[in-house]
What we know:
Radius of gyration: 12 Å
Order of helices and strands: HEHE
InterPro entries: Peripla_BP_I
Strand order of the largest sheet: 1-2
Distance between the termini: 18 Å
Helix content: 40-55%
Amino acid sequence: YVFGVLNYSNYNQLPVLADLFEEWGVETVAYIYIADLHGIEYSHVAEGEFLKKGITVLYSEGVLPTAMDLT
Length: 71
């Protein structure tokens, strides 16, 4: 498992991350994102980049910016 936080750099960082995942043999991913405009755009870019590399997105869900507990 890898747990990480992505900086805002969707058109630069995510393609590189997808390349690394492909190199490491990652087959599936799951992620949550803040459900604001940035998070929604970022999640769409992430999903597109992962799918290009044949990586299946098992779970993707937005949470409200005011969320205090994600359990």
